[in-house]
Amino acid sequence: RIQGENIGIPGPMLFHLHYLKPYRRHRRVVTRTLLLLAAFILLIYLSLSGVFERLRETPYSDYSYPPEIDLKYLLRSLKTGSEPFYSVQNHYERYVFKISNELKCHISQNRTSILIVVKSAAAHQSLRDTIRQTWGQENRFEDVDLRRVFMVGVKANDETAQSALEDEHAHHGDLVQADFIDTYYNNTIKMMLSFRWVLEHCSDVQWIFFADDDYYVSTKNLLQFLRHSMNPRDRHLVGYVYDEAAPYRAYFNKWYVSLSEYPFSRYPPFPVGGSIVMSMPALTELYHMARYTRQFRLDDVFLGIVARKVGLRPLHSDKFRDKNQPKLPEDFVGIVAAHGVYDRYHLVQIWEQQKRLGHA
């Protein structure tokens, strides 16, 4: 007789229960392990997606970006030639202009003078050629003295690329090249070296317009906007402005920013770096303050940080487009600049359409 028959449990069932207990224990262990694994994966996901960093951010109401600088004292010291007691954070003066283009700007008196600085990359000659033939033409307007340069860096260990740039400049005379490695996260250096070059070689211009080489620009609309809106003797910084943009905390995002790099819950207002126009007084103060401000690798955010330090609030205009890019020909009416040109043929198509309509 099998033990247990006296309590009414059939022998085969008792045999089954005998082996079922370890199975149940095993299933509980597996379930707990899977739950722990799921919790671990969730924690990793939340960490990489920036949730925990977001919870540890410093409120923007406590914003203070180092170091604190007295702008009036700084400008007064620089004007008199004395050395400010602040430490220089960014030695932009140590970079060398391999192509300096010192004689590019000879601005006549009593004419609206605009300098267009197109931020480009060494390999983008086809885009530069297209801009020269379309919206970047220098001699379209009889009553405006307009100059155009392309700002580039160097391509590391590539003598062929360097030789091509020098040949291109010899042919067109419109390149400025500094000896920084031209990568995405060096865009802040590219922007500030553009500022430095303007101050050293084009300080008589009234307006400076910065654009990336993947933008469509209506120079005609730009001129109308400047003539009817602002005085070049005042400080102006204009573009598509983000007022309350928050840092990206997701680790694998292109624009990820750690708490150690920037601890605050949002950025100061900043204009998108792809198309900005500013007056010379604004550029002068921004450049000098930038040298004494801890550098930030996102160029447009850094410009917003420096603008806040000098007490200059960027002015938003829907004539400068970052999102909601125009698509139909009539959408470009009144537009100064629009992002989203994906190749030279697209740029030519937009330009020819707008020129026929009288808006280019």
Automatic annotation (TrEMBL):
Transmembrane residue ranges: 29-48
Location in or out of the cell: Golgi apparatus membrane
Major localisation: Golgi
Family designation: Belongs to the glycosyltransferase 31 family.
Record's protein name: Hexosyltransferase
Source domain of life: Eukaryota
Sorted UniProt keywords: Glycosyltransferase, Golgi apparatus, Membrane, Signal-anchor, Transferase, Transmembrane, Transmembrane helix
Gene Ontology MF, one: UDP-glycosyltransferase activity
Provenance organism: Ixodes ricinus (Common tick)
Gene Ontology CC terms, in alphabetical order: Golgi membrane
One GO biological process term: protein O-linked glycosylation
Pfam families listed in its UniProt record: Galactosyl_T (PF01762)
Enzyme Commission number(s): 2.4.1.-
PANTHER family the record matches: BETA-1,3-GALACTOSYLTRANSFERASE BRN, BETA-1,3-N-ACETYLGLUCOSAMINYLTRANSFERASE
